[in-house]
Amino acid sequence: MPFGAHETLEVHEILLEKVNMITHFNLYLQEAQDPELRDLIMRHRQEEIRSYDEIVAYTHDYNAAAPVPAMTHVKGVSPQNIQYGLNNPPQVGPRTGAVLGDTEIASAMLCAHKNAAKNGMWAALETADPNLRRMLLNSATNCANQAYEVFLFMNKQGTYQVPKMSSHTAKTYLHTYQPAGQAFQNQYSGQAGFSGHTPGAGGGMNQNFNQASQQGNFYGGLQGNRNAQYGMNGNLPNQGMQGYSK
What is the pTM of this model? Predict the structure, then answer.
């Protein structure tokens, strides 16, 4: 089964990005001084290599489909772990003759992971092959968690400070949104056809879906076949998001 043209180009971009990240992380490891930062670089580099090899293996052999759930090291993080507020933030700007210090390395890693997370999710949205889609979703989730891990390191060091808004202003602004409420939810959840478990009126909705599928509803039929074959539900893997609290 060949890849589609669109997903082939997307995977090319993702693999090239991963090669670039791994190469740069090798350079960062030579320059980094902080032991915690060095540990971040080594772990993140290894995870990027694993993800790269996983996708390459599948593009070489369709039988090598074994998506590995995203890994995370940000379990147990709570809002109390974040340092909020500005405290004499450092001046930032382009410099000539600059060297790669720990702050510059952490900033570069953060940008790399953020971009990789966005690019991986976009590529997954443009991918038809279900196994490849899962690999890209796992990769995007992994990069998002790695970005957050770098943020936590920088926040603790005081190099990534989070400006605060007064509690009164934030609550006034956000509390303009009110809960839908149980009555509102019951109004729609109880309507005919929205529950596939109730015969009668609900069965009419199911019948309509079946008719549409029989008439060539490509997307519904394709998704149903993939769910049955691969056990995929279209959501991000839970394993990669446990403990992700920001």
Answer: 0.72
